[in-house]
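Summary of Year 1 activities. Much of the first year was spent building the evaluation harness for sequence design. The harness presents a backbone, in tokenized form, and records the residue chosen at every position. We chose the following record to illustrate the format because it has been used consistently in internal testing since the harness was completed.
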């Protein structure tokens, strides 16, 4: 593993992190670790990854002594509905159809922009504390989420979700949001068009979305083949799978991020591998286990085809947390179980999915996902001195299978420290929780009998 050096000068650095072990990638994208290392940050960018001795006398505006810690790229939550933390635990132990129709979609019809803002604040606090520096969000009232992202300092890939039942106005709002906020928050916000799914967005709207994506240079983020029932129902009713719908409507010719994909069939794989546009899939395994879905995202088959698979949590209403560390461990374990092969997914392969592959899934591999010179300084420091992470025989395995979200000590985005020694610096959780509590009776009321959509795949 060749260490990254980068440009070193005698002028003061913005930030120097020293004494740590750094997770690095070589030119073949293999995971490795550089010990007794330092990371130098200038203008929000990683300027160098080098030995700690080389920066001992380097002047810096801020220095962090990270002995006993691992510096690694910030985690990316590749698919979530951040404001849904307000509905954490509201619909438990239900099949998917009842979960949507009887609880979640009736409650979501009550949502106001203020509810979304408060949920986003709480979600961002949770993710920062868990070492997530970037998240891909797909929800409603996304102007409020963009404002929270700008204020709290995170990086985000945002899309305003729409259904065909909203008429052409839904699609138009999704486009207007994407154009209005693209490049926002000093470049920390990227945007996507966000049709909900092939079973809630008709072919004409999907085709129109594909044309808009090409016209405006925008990616698409949607749910598709979420589970096997959706794939089988689509085949029975329409003679095509959801992935085949994406092909015939042109969505696969765009830069597309597909959420879940546990219903991707063998017949879909050639379509995904031959897609004209970059295609990626986000996997959120905890929710699949909770809903008792019989299959999981076919990570191995997708990886063999060169299709990036990023790690995700989905929304906390179904997953109960935004803990990407848990998604990382579950992905590795479930892949071993479903393939019957303990050699797959290895800890280093899992870390690759959590870093570079997740960055690639949200279209940001050129700027995040690795601590290499020229990449944005999205960095987390993970404390491995706790009893549950000692002794360390295999550092990759310790990070994947022993470390927890609570072991993240420091979270940095664009060189700005958002959490230092577990203290959040950009968000006030107490005030958010108090106001959410006051608003909760009106938010969870289902007496009106309405819902925003019908779940019928």
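For this record, the design step produced the sequence shown next.
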């Amino acid at each position: 593993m060749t260490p990254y050096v980068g440009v070193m000068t005698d002028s003061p650095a913005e930030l120097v992190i020293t004494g740590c072990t750094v997770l690095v990638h070589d030119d073949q994208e293999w995971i490795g670790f550089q010990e007794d290392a330092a990371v130098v940050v200038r203008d929000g960018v990683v300027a160098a990854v080098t030995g700690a001795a080389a920066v001992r006398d380097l002047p810096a505006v801020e220095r962090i002594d990270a002995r006993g810690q691992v510096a690694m790229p910030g985690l990316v939550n590749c698919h979530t509905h951040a404001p849904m933390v307000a509905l954490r635990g509201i619909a438990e132990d239900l099949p998917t159809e009842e979960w949507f129709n009887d609880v979640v979609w009736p409650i979501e019809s009550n949502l106001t922009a203020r509810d979304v803002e408060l949920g986003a604040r709480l979600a961002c606090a949770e993710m920062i504390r868990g070492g997530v520096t970037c998240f891909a969000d797909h929800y409603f009232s996304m102007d409020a989420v963009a404002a929270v992202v700008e204020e709290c300092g995170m990086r985000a890939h945002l899309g305003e979700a729409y259904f065909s039942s909203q008429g052409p106005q839904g699609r138009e709002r999704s486009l207007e949001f994407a154009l209005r906020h693209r490049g926002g928050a000093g470049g920390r916000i990227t945007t996507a068009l966000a049709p909900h799914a092939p079973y809630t967005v008709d072919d004409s709207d999907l085709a129109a979305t594909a044309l808009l994506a090409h016209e405006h240079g925008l990616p698409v983020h949607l749910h598709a083949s979420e589970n096997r029932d959706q794939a089988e129902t689509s085949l029975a009713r329409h003679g095509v799978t959801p992935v085949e719908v994406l092909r015939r409507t042109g969505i696969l010719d765009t830069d597309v991020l597909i959420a879940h994909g546990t219903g991707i069939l063998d017949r879909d794989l050639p379509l995904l591998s031959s897609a004209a546009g970059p295609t990626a899939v986000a996997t959120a395994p905890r929710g699949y286990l909770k809903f008792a879905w019989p299959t999981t995202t076919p990570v191995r088959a997708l990886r063999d085809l060169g299709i990036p698979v990023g790690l995700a949590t989905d929304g906390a209403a179904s997953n109960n947390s935004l803990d990407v560390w848990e998604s990382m461990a579950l992905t590795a374990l479930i892949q071993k179980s479903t393939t019957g092969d303990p050699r797959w997914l290895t800890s280093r392969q899992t870390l690759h999915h959590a870093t570079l592959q997740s960055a690639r899934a949200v279209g940001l591999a050129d700027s995040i996902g690795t601590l290499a010179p020229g990449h944005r300084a999205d960095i987390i420091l993970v404390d491995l001195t706790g009893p549950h992470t000692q002794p360390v025989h295999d550092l990759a395995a310790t990070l994947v299978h022993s470390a927890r979200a609570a072991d993240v000590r420091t979270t940095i985005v664009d060189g700005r420290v958002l959490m230092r020694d577990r203290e959040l610096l950009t968000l006030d959780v107490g005030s958010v929780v108090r106001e959410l509590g006051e608003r909760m009776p009106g938010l969870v009321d289902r007496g009106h009998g309405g819902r925003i959509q019908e779940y019928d795949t």
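The mean pLDDT is 96. Quantitative recovery figures across the full test set are reported in Table 2.
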